[in-house]
Design brief:
- It is a single chain.
- The protein has 358 residues and is mainly α.
- α5 crosses α8, α9 packs across α14 and α10 packs across α14.
- The N terminus and C terminus are likely disordered.
Length: 358
Amino acid sequence: MGLLSRLWGLVSAPAPVVRVPVAPTQPVVAPPALVAPPRPQAQEPGQEPERECTSHRASDADLAAALQHDLRCRAQRLLESLTHEPDLAYVVQALSEEIADALPQIPAAAQAGLALTVDANVQVQDLVRVFERDPSLAQALLKTANSSYYCSASPCTSIDKAVVKLGRRGLRNVLLNQLMQGLVCRPGAAFGDMPREVWSHMSESAPLARRLAPGFGGNPEEAFALALLHDAGKLVLFEAASAARRKRRREVCVDDPTKIAACLDLLHEPLGGLAVFTWGFGPEVARVVANHHRHPPPQQPSPLSEAVFLADAIQLAGDVNSLGLEALWARGRLSGSPVRVEELPTDTWSRRAIVARS
């Protein structure tokens, strides 16, 4: 069974919801299975400092507790700087104390559709029916089937042909794309266009990761899926702000927008790791999402983590030439040689070209 089967971690019946255990709010105590992280070493000039991250050393069984511990430690550090932002502090406190209730859940229909795509014995007509029932899914399927990545001599105009053309892996990514897009919410005026911008970044990083993956020896469709998930923690934070807005029946007021950016920056990795683990995507995926900025890098080489890291950086910059491949390689402490990546087609390095081709 390959990584994609583990990635989705779903069965033909709707998967049970994994409840993340909520630890007491005071004091913060590391899970007993974890080893306290060493003190950060002196950093080279221009190198970003490493953040506390114990989840990469946790066993699969302890991963949820380790991710929650990381989240609560980071939240406490943030709360010290949010004394003049009570509404934002309320959101952060709620995330750290009530994470099991704060995480959005995957609808049962989406679970059932994803489950079919991991069934090696599924019939084509069963997959066709998933897309026939939802016009938006059908439209997304046909758009993907006719993209330049899946290019063919003649356009694909039927769902039946599109299902056969994409195969189960491609269909999973169509479903996942629609699922993640559905999590984009409107937390209030203080957040402006941040949710839409985050989703644009995620959706543009995915085709970049797909093109970069072969340079690291990774599967393109798996890299696409992980890049779609990598900033899920930011969407969770936006949803938590929306929940606070509904619960308190008023806008979430923020005087200093840089505080929102600080919350997103510090919390989104453990939040995203907890989200995908709770959704049933498995510990391997949760680890990549929870540490996609590679601070510190994984203990074992991870081709998909490296492809997602590079795609994330290139999408944000717009072009690799403004960053330098060697600088990115050092920043992410990527394994192996960049030669294989350098030998990829030239248009791999253009964000606009990749998005147009996807």
